[in-house]
Design a protein that fits this description.
The chain contains 3 helices and 3 strands. Strands 1-2-3 form a 3-stranded antiparallel sheet. β1 and β2 form a beta hairpin.
């Protein structure tokens, strides 16, 4: 059973929450969710200028979404981890530079 049928069985608010979660996830990768008819209909947000061109809409089956969604979640988490590591490296480099400046001033 797919994610949306299970959410719909739990109630309208559960379905809306599942759709919003997926819209947010797709939005992080520059995609927009336009419809759930017969699967997901996605559009590249960078190509949308007011009205959505039907040629820019891509279809993703619910079965494929079942495979792609966990991969996107993992990629999102890895991106967040990488950003955190880059911040920590920048902080460490700033501390090292400050210590070197202090050492140079103390040596004078």
């Amino acid at each position: 059973m797919n994610r949306y049928r299970m959410a719909a069985a739990r109630g309208r608010s559960s379905l809306e929450e599942a759709v919003q979660e997926d819209q947010d996830l797709l939005g992080e990768f520059g995609l927009g969710l336009t419809s759930l008819e017969g699967g997901l209909r996605l559009v590249f947000l960078a190509r949308v200028r007011g009205k959505i061109n039907p040629w820019d809409v891509n279809h993703l089956s619910l079965k494929m979404w079942g495979w792609v969604r966990p991969l996107l979640i993992e990629l999102r988490d890895l991106r967040a981890y990488k950003a955190e590591m880059e911040r920590e490296v920048a902080e460490a480099q700033a501390l090292i530079a400050a210590e070197q400046v202090e050492g140079a001033v103390a040596a004078r």
